[in-house]
Amino acid sequence: MTKKPTDVDVSTVWWLGTDGPEHYDFAKLYGNENPVELDLGCGKGLFLFNQSRLRPEVNFIGIDWSKQFSRLGASRIVRHNIPNVRIVAADAWNLFARFPDCCFQAIHVYFPDPWWKKRHRKRRIVRAELIEHVRRLLKPDGTLFIATDVEEYFGVMLEVLGASPYLIRLPDPTPSEGANELDYLTHFERKYRKVGKPIFRAAYALNPSPTHPSESQVSLSTTDK
Ligand SMILES: C[S@@+](CC[C@H](N)C(=O)[O-])C[C@H]1O[C@@H](n2cnc3c(N)ncnc32)[C@H](O)[C@@H]1O
């Protein structure tokens, strides 16, 4: 008989942020030097489940502050004996400082909560403060991926990310075919595509030669003279 998700021992794959390492050493964590990708707000972990099997040469770490969802995702990883996924139940903002510089080949932010109420908007994951973390944590040739069904939030994300001299927009990622129940990027993508909602996607690279905002100010004022 299959064990209930809550009965599966997930201790090798899943932990609370406060119980995890103070300083993450990914080579030690996965036992290899493979590139690592971060799924920010991984929910029940369909992205981690699919991608870890499709790309066994990549390590994945998911963060979600929902203990229930992240643990559920971890139980599937354990049941399928998937070696290259770890999941942390934590507020991502409290975990970033524990990761080393330039440690992620990709950062995925899929269907981040839109926080509809104006007074809650500051809780949105994709906001100006995220860019500092992305700059520090992404490898120089790394990629930031975003997707959402919320057009208004997508517009805000493009504005915030587009205003940064440190990021360059890449061609938009291509959706999967949705050929079967598992052929979706995430649980939320599946839910929305099945009811025909449009999905908005974008990808960014780090700008190798950013012009610091204060430098453009300086050159402007020099030209003005
Ligand atoms: C709308 S769900 C999307 C889940 C998944 N990415 C998907 O597409 O199916 C957003 C997720 O982000 C998580 N989340 C929101 N803010 C977070 C934060 N500050 N730290 C960690 N997780 C967060 C929520 O718990 C939720 O599971």
Topology:
Elements: E1 14-16, H1 26-30, E2 36-40, H2 46-54, E3 59-64, H3 67-79, E4 85-89, H4 92-95, E5 104-110, H5 128-137, E6 138-148, H6 151-162, E7 167-170, H7 187-194, E8 200-206, H8 213-224
Parallel strand pairs: 1-4, 2-3, 2-5, 3-4, 5-6
Antiparallel strand pairs: 6-8, 7-8
The chain binds S-adenosylmethionine.
In words, what does this structure look like?
- With 225 residues, the protein is α/β, with parallel strands linked by helices.
- The protein has one domain (5-216): Vaccinia Virus protein VP39 (Rossmann fold, 3-Layer(aba) Sandwich).
- The protein is 32% helix and 21% strand.
- An eight-stranded mixed β-sheet has the order 1-4-3-2-5-6-8-7, with helices on both faces.
- Strand 3 (59-64), helix 3 (67-79) and strand 4 form a beta-alpha-beta unit.
- The radius of gyration is 19 Å and the shape is globular.
- Residues 41-43, 63-66, 69, 91-93, 110-113, 125, 186-189 line the site of S-adenosylmethionine.
